Amino acid sequence: MPAKKKPAVTTPLQLLEQLSGDLLKYFEKACGKALDEAEGLLAELEKERARSQDKLHKAQEKRAAAVEAGKLKAQAKAEARIAELDTLLAQLQVRQQQLLTYLAQLRRDSDRGLQLAKGIREVELSARAAQQPAPEELAKKAPRRTSQPVARAAAAGAPRVARPRPAAAKPAAPAAAKPKAASKPAASKPAPRRPAAKKTPPTQPSE
To answer: Which of 174-181's residues contact partners 24+ apart within 8 Å by CB, and which partners?
Structure first.
């Protein structure tokens, strides 16, 4: 994965924050690495000392066998080997003691250094805090940002007042009231009957 790019430094406060943070990380990493290396060397030295001790034990067994068998040459060879291993073991013991002393001192120095490095951490935090806007600036900006929401909240919390509705316009009166339907005309009197025409007798023809 590609390494994350650090943000660009544009102000002295950002530079101070970045440098103090990087210094603290580097110091902690260096202390941990030095302790790991010292402990690794001590572990290797102890293994080498154990192997040399085993070789010395075998050389002593060979010398005892040569003495019992009366082999002077083998006995002399075994004694030379024993002397060599004794010298090596003595050197390893000295180195081990020196390494233990160094490791103890390194641990004390690392602990002391990390305690002092807290001041660097405070510098980093102070530089970061100094980049934040001052409370006065926040107070100036706050009303502008919150006035509208507050007004809305106040309006929402206030009891709603029913607005008077405009009176509905009455429908215009009809121009002229329609006359009521005339009652049914009174039954008309029957027209007088005409007198039936009198029948005239038929005229007889003259002789």
So the answer is: none
**Dist. CA 102–CA 42, nearest whole Å:** 10
Place of tokens 């009198």: 198
Whether the Cβ atoms of residue 17 and residue 127 lie closer than 8 Å to each other: yes
- What whole-number distance in Å separates Cα of residue 95 and Cα of residue 54? 19
Please, what is the Cα angle at 5 between 27 and 130, to 5 degrees? 65
Quick: pLDDT tens for 125-163.
998 899 888 666 656 665 555 455 555 655 555 555 455
Residue 183 lies in a domain: no
Q: Domain total for the chain?
A: 1
Both tokens assigned to 134 = 């001052």
**Does pTM surpass 0.70?**
no
